[in-house]
Amino acid sequence: MSGGDENALIVEGVYTAYDKADVLDNVSLRGEPGKITCLLGSNGSGKSTLIRSILGLTPPNRGRIVFNGTELTGLPTHKIIATGIACIPEGRKVFPKLTVEENLRLGGYQEPSADVVRKRLDHVYETFPQLKERKEQVAGTLSGGEQAMVSIGRGLMGAPKLLLLDEPSLGLSPILVKENFNTIRRINEQGVTVFLVEQNVRQTLAIADYGYVLSKGRVVAHGTPEVLGRTKEVHEAYFG
Ligand SMILES: Nc1ncnc2c1ncn2[C@@H]1O[C@H](COP(=O)(O)OP(=O)(O)OP(=O)(O)O)[C@@H](O)[C@H]1O
Ligand SMILES: [Mg+2]
User: What architecture is the 1-84+192-240 domain classified under in CATH?
Assistant: First the structure.
């Protein structure tokens, strides 16, 4: 492992299929350590499938995925998570009948020390003061924006090195979308590498350091936000 690959996410020549439907077609990309890398693409282009491939939920048929020098391909999901990865899945599921704090504690289940769990809870409450006020409330009665905070907070409870986010702002009002992006930026500033799947092109490119565009399972463009914002692939993916 070269020094530059520490905490890097490396996807190389990945092919992933469901039953007989081929989805990812030779996908290669890199999530740079300490940076925000985004993945754009129209509905059905394979973005969530790539996240599922990274997590080993739908393992690739070919290619390799490496994080922080560890080959993830072939590992079971819990071992992949244990390399320091947290995922905020599409639809940001919370456990509706559990309280905010119970939801958050589930994200720290791999941490044996109660002191450490307490510290991480405090850190999440610092990041999301609104959750502290509502820590005894059952999560199913929270607003959509608050549920998004719980979902991200739960991810942070594992003190991840890499945070995968699958359309975290989907369904949020414009003001909450803005807050959501600010939160992602703050988490990244604390040293967490971010891999962000999003539909909000403008706001995503405003916080990302680098990006890729997926179309029909292939990477059709990549570059800095300045470059990507001008490519026809981004316009085709989102504006027809
Ligand atoms: N469990 C599954 N079984 C069969 N096909 C699937 C399955 N999940 C996804 N697909 C198909 O794989 C393709 C890629 O889906 P995926 O969910 O990765 O797209 P996406 O880019 O995340 O789209 P969206 O922006 O709508 O979330 C789609 O054609 C979808 O119908
Ligand atoms: Mg998706």
Answer: 3-Layer(aba) Sandwich (3.40)
